[in-house]
Design brief:
Layout (H helix, E strand, L loop, with lengths): L7 E4 L2 E6 L4 E6 L3 E6 L3 E7 L5 E5 L4 E4 L4 E6 L5 E6 L6 H6 L2 E4 L3 H14 L6 H21 L5 H19 L7 H7 L4 H12 L3 H19 L4 H7 L5 H12 L3 H8 L1
Antiparallel strand pairs: 1-2, 2-9, 3-8, 4-7, 4-9, 5-6, 5-8, 7-10
Helix pairs in contact: 2-3, 4-6, 5-6, 7-10
Organism: Undibacterium umbellatum
Protein name: Helix-turn-helix transcriptional regulator
Pfam family, one: HTH_18
Amino acid sequence: MSMDLIDTIDIKWGRLELLPALPYSISSTSFHASLGLAFARQKGVHAIGSDVRHDFDAWPGDFAISSAGLPMFSESAHGGEYLLMHITEPDLLTDFQASSPRKIFHGDKLAVMLAWQIRSLLLQSYPDPLLLEEKASLFLQQGLTLHNTRTTARSQYSKDKNVHAQILDYIEDQLDTALNLEVMAAMANMSLLRFLRSFAHATGSTPHTYITERRLQKARALLGNSNLSIVDIAADCGFAHQSHMGSAFKSRMGLSPQQYRKLSA
């Protein structure tokens, strides 16, 4: 991601970072509590709060809350786009820090939607500071609400995650083709309606919305790092035509493909 795009910005009580889908290896201890949401699947190795390293498989929609002072090592060969919010006002997460150093919530639709909205603002040349703080506050509030009302252990989620792993792999392999819901439902051995509910429960978005998200992520990478025409990029990413990609871009990112390419040049 070009530095011309605003990918880090301070608000009154915190800092927002949009981490790109690039290989990384980090080892640090944050001074601040944080909330993070994954926009895409990401695999690697990590050690959180200990020296013992484990393989991890973070899913789109995974929403993590981590306390201040938590040692963390994380490494991934490809990374994945990720929204990270540092809470510089310690009193905002006092209750959480007293109960657990880290919790992860899966597939929360509101958290995913708010993360998309914050990302769209971060991609603007001059984001509205009041609107950005409002969306960040709602994102924080949703994290606290989940922490206070839900547990992370969900047997149905674990079962569906195993089923949907092959679906996510299939989507990645066939992203440039006309994907079919009935085919994916059959792969999951579910009726169409059950598949739609189950997928949303696991990832926080419908299959169509998730596929559009992944196509837009691929398109953004090509717009910023290639000389391909917008027509060719739309075809390579599985959009029906250039205007289809343009409409999706404007709706999700708040920018046209041309505007995004200009900013990322």
